[in-house]
Every structure is written in C-alpha cells, then in structure tokens.
Design goal:
Blueprint: H1 15-27, H2 34-49, E1 67-69, E2 75-79, H3 86-93, H4 103-108, E3 113-116, H5 129-139, H6 146-169, E4 173-175, H7 200-211, H8 214-226, E5 230-232, E6 236-239, H9 249-253, H10 259-264, H11 277-286, E7 293-296, E8 306-308, E9 313-315, E10 323-328, H12 335-338, E11 339-341
Parallel strand pairs: 1-5, 2-3, 3-4, 6-7, 7-9
Antiparallel strand pairs: 2-10, 5-6, 8-9, 10-11
Helix pairs in contact: 2-6, 2-8, 5-6
C-alpha cells in the first residue's frame, strides 16, 4: 500500500488508503515535512472558505460564519480538547460503534458527524514536563531541539490528520477554535499569549520561524481564524469554553472581527459566565429546550464529566481520559450512558515520514537517537 498520498488525493482515495494514511501520520515520530504541511494547510483553508451555507451560514463579509448547524445529522460524536493526544484520536477513529462499524466507517457512509471542541496542540497531562525540559532548548535558540521536536511531532502530525478529516468529510467533520489555536501567540483579536507549564506559545512560534518560515505561519494562522466557534445540534449546544455572555444568531454568524465574542467562547473561567447565559442561549437557538445540554471542554475536570451553570453546561475535558459523547437525534441525552471512555486501539503500523511524491522529506532521525 502506497503511504505517500498527495493532498489532492485525500478526497478521492479509498477508505483503506485513507486509513493507512491516518495510521502512518499518527505514528510518525518526526515533525511534519515542510512542503506537505504547507500543501495540506492551503487545501483545508480552501475547504473552510467554501463550507455548505446550509450548515454554516454565511456572514455579511461573504465568509462562512461562526455557527455550525448539525441538527440534520442523526448521530453526533463530540470529543473534548485533544492537546497533542494522537493516540486518543487514532483510537477514536477506529472505535467500533454501531453494528461493529468504526467511527471512520460511519463518517464514510454519512451516518454520523464528528465534532472536536478545539485545542488540538500543546501537550498536557503526563507530557506537561516535556515543556520544562524543552524550555532550555528554546532559550538556546534551538541549536539542539530533540525534545521540542517531539512536541511539534505530536501536536502538528495530529493537526495534519485533523485537516485531512475536514478535507475528506467536509460538513461531517468540524473542529472548533479553542484558546490554544493561536500559532502567532498574539494578544488581541480574542486571543491571549500562552504560558502554562513553561512558555509554550513563544516556544512554538519561535520553532516555526526557525524551521518552517513565514509562509507556513501565515497559512496556519489563517486556518485558525477560519475555524467556527459555536454549534447547534438537535438537542445540544457546544463551544470550546463556557460562553461568557449571551449572544444572538446574527452576532455569532458575523464573528470574524468580534474579539469579545471570540474570547468569550474560548477563554471563560469556571463560574464567571453571565448569570442566565446558558438558559438564554437555549431559548435563542433551541426554542428553550428543557432536556438539552451545552457541552464544552477547556477547563480540566476529574472523572467523565462535570455539570455547572444550573447543571446545563457539561464539561468533558479530562487530560487523563479519552472521553467522547455519543448523541442520537431521536434519543434523549442521558449523561451517565452517553459520555464514555474510548477504548485503546492496538496498532503496530511501521513509522515513516509522509510527503508528496515530488518533495523531499526532511530527515529528523538524528534528533531521535536511542541514546538520548
């Protein structure tokens, strides 16, 4: 099986070829190759600029708006922050669900939609200490960058698969903007520079400047700013963070230059949301549905889920668990049944670098010697 699928083939290749592509990328230990990375970012940007306006209504600036409408789908799978957890994402895609079909089978057949709540990059949990170790590499101008290579590999090979999913499945796959979708490490436009375990935001942008260059940085930043913020489902709402204040349909569709709204759906701290906000949003978008829930990630929890804001806002981001929510259009949501842990997928696929046939892969092998 040829692993070197070109970006333009991601839509037309067979399911088996695409599955092999996923396995290979998610098992690759080296950071993404520059040419392939740029090509896939450009392709996903084209897809995001040409969304189905029935499912993602168009803003006044003629760009796809900030709202995704998933009410027409019979089944929706929601997952929280990924934070470079590519094993989680791989296990999710090959998770066997209805009639022993994998999630990828269901996506291929149009039987479901997959919703990711954002924060694809910046490892947490057990890998948090890697930031502290790689900080010395950052301070030394990445003259050596073995440890940071590992972070970039985990985060951005995962994002390559995320982008490929959007290219292949269009409206059946959606990835929301989180507060970590800020490659520029900017403060402004609804974003804030990021430093939690070390100085992650500055470390990543410096790495990109040194090894990828301004063209990729510019394209990747454009990708992040094209991502939607808010989802309306059959009997649920969703965003990366708990909404800070209420808003109407027109405002969320025309979100592009609304820094207050972008911040309010990606950075909200626990218990700081405007009083009555969640109830007001259910009234606005789901006719005051009483048996509905609003799902978000962002703030870490213990266990499988946590309910706040009159128990209507459900947090599902546990950095140490692989959590997913399964929602059926015709069934009432029962949190204790529908929020589950994704089983681990056993895979021994050989690791190799992915690149277009007409490009040269960068050899990062010297940065991963067994002696280090």
């Amino acid at each position: 099986m040829n692993n070197n699928i070109k970006v333009n083939d991601l839509e037309s290749c067979t399911q088996k070829q695409y599955e092999n592509f996923i396995h290979t990328v998610l098992n690759t230990k080296s950071p993404p190759e520059k040419v392939f990375f740029k090509n896939i970012i450009d392709q996903v940007n084209h897809v995001l600029d040409n969304e189905d306006c029935e499912l993602r209504p168009t803003a006044k600036n003629n760009l796809p708006g900030g709202l995704i409408d998933l009410r027409s789908f019979n089944k929706t799978i929601i997952i929280p922050d990924l934070h470079a957890r590519r094993d989680f994402f791989k296990s999710l895609l090959f998770w066997r669900l209805d009639n022993n079909k994998t999630l990828l089978d269901l996506l291929e057949n149009g039987d479901c939609t997959l919703l990711c709540l954002g924060d694809g990059v910046h490892a947490e949990g057990d890998l948090a200490k890697r930031w502290v170790l790689s900080y010395k590499e950052f301070l030394n101008g990445y003259k050596k960058h073995t440890i940071m290579d590992e972070e970039i590999s985990d985060s951005f090979n995962l994002m390559i698969v995320i982008m490929s999913m959007k290219i292949r499945y269009k409206s059946r796959f959606n990835f929301l903007k989180g507060n970590h979708e800020n490659i520029l490490n900017e403060t402004g436009n609804g974003n804030f520079s990021f430093a939690k375990f070390a100085n992650e935001g500055a470390m990543v942008i410096d790495y990109f400047k040194k090894f990828y260059g301004n063209d990729i940085i510019k394209s990747y930043a454009a990708f992040e700013k094209k991502l939607p913020l808010f989802v309306v489902g059959s009997h649920f709402l969703a965003s990366h963070a708990e909404p800070y204040f209420k808003f109407d349909r027109e405002r969320i569709i025309n979100y592009h230059n609304d820094s207050q709204l972008i911040e309010g759906l990606t950075w909200t701290e626990n218990f700081s949301s405007e009083k009555g906000c969640i109830d007001a949003l259910f009234e606005t978008f789901l006719d005051n549905c009483h048996n509905c829930f609003y799902f978000g990630g962002h703030r870490p929890i213990k266990g499988f889920y946590n309910q706040i804001n009159n128990d209507r806002f459900v947090q599902i981001h546990n950095p140490y668990k692989w959590i997913a929510v399964t929602i059926s259009k015709d069934s009432e949501i029962i949190l204790e049944n529908d929020i589950v842990e994704v089983p681990q997928e056993n895979d021994q696929t050989e690791i190799s670098t992915i690149f277009d046939d007409n490009s040269n892969a960068i050899d990062f092998s010297e940065h991963f010697s067994k002696d280090e």
